[in-house]
Amino acid sequence: MSPSMYFTIFLLLFPILLLLIMRRRKLSNKLPPGSLGIPFIGQSLDLLRAMRTNTAEKWLEERARKYGPISKLTLFGTPTVFVRGKAANKFVFNNDGEVLGNNQPKSIARIMGSRNILELNGEDHRRVRGALLTFLKPEVLKKYVGKMDKEVRNHLKVHWQGKTKITIMPLMKTLTFDIMCSLLFGLESGDKKRETFVKYFMEMIEGMWTIPVNLPFTRFNRSIRASTKAQSLVMGLIREKREALLKQQASPSDDLILSLLCITGEDNKPALSDKEIVDNVMIVMLAGFDTSSVLLTFLVRLLINDPFVYAAVLREHEEIAEGKKSGEELTWEDLSKMKYTWRVANETLRMTPPVFGGFRKALKDLEFEGYLIPKGWQVFWVANMTHMDETIFPNPSKFDPSRFDQQTPVPPFCYVAFGGGPRVCPGYEFARLEVLVSVHYMVTMYNWKFCLNDNSFIRDPMPLQNQGLPILIEPKKSF
């Protein structure tokens, strides 16, 4: 090609190149303030360090003071926009799933599976959510109060009876794990699969909030390997239960896996693939096990710190116990009387939400508060940005269950322990059932008191109580 031809092509392309440069500069100017930091790593290590020293809220507040309620950074390998406040929560939770979709850090998606409800959008999300609610809705959960009652009483008999000192956090993890194994998997007490699964599960969740570098000896690598083993175990249970259904040796109401196996679509074919059943059973297990054990641990902690609230909770449960015969199980109607206890639980979740925050993904270029969020970027929200906002919750550091009285409803999108909008946690009622039954027997059968002066905690990423919260216990009555 002659030099004149090159020059002619340059003259033709120059306006296009100029427009692209100007557009890129214009888009760059519309991005939120802040720095993306080192590629891939960004501010991930800073956030994780702040969480492990329990200063993450302070770190984010300082960021908000510097950049405002919306800023850009890089977290866990992905460019991210951090949003803060009531309007941000509404933006995150009230979208239609076509603009801002479900998304978790790459580390969580890799460990928990790509077909879990936290990763799905649109019709897939609605289909899987509907399937889970066939088991998790109140009218179905009523059948399982007695089963959960037995698990809690058996736990107290095995792990509390005859002891004067116990460590609450690991015991609450044992309790919630046993409950989940029974109701989700149909694995009853004494089944060796329980012990195998808990080992894999604990290793699996350790690497969920990490930089997703899959190298030997990293937390992420250990979690990946544990996840593969745990998923294999669940897949084996699916095969066993499908065979039991064919032989009419099991019922859809026996546990969550059986319930999901029996759901069919309009074409009379299974509504969920085996992969979707595995991934979603795992995510429900995570929610019911880890978040509920944290709630129960910190509820005990806060009750011991507040004798007035503890006395009110105890009075509510003693009134229920007085109307029961010895050994009689709790009923759904009994749980409906535990209104004050559930307010206490909600206040505990407000002050110490088990889930620090979460992520969404921009499915296309979009704007928020005048700033551009490019397609493919993460949106990061944090519960305590509204939970501890004194303009929403006056004197936010005070433990005050009356905040959740029905007479004074909390403004929408300010209390987000269970999410909000159309994506509110489908396991809300299950968590309520799990906590209320557990608290009933713990407060009516035992007195508690601290045996450590230091009751501090960190996040990794869930709250971890110092030394697991050891307490002294004294039985009130025999089993």
Automatic annotation (TrEMBL):
Pfam families, A to Z: p450
GO molecular function, one term: oxidoreductase activity, acting on paired donors, with incorporation or reduction of molecular oxygen
Keyword tags: Heme, Iron, Membrane, Metal-binding, Monooxygenase, Oxidoreductase, Transmembrane, Transmembrane helix
Sites where the protein binds heme: C425
Transmembrane segments: 6-22
Names of required cofactors: heme
GO biological process: secondary metabolite biosynthetic process; sterol metabolic process
Entry similarity comment: Belongs to the cytochrome P450 family.
Official protein name in the record: Cytochrome P450
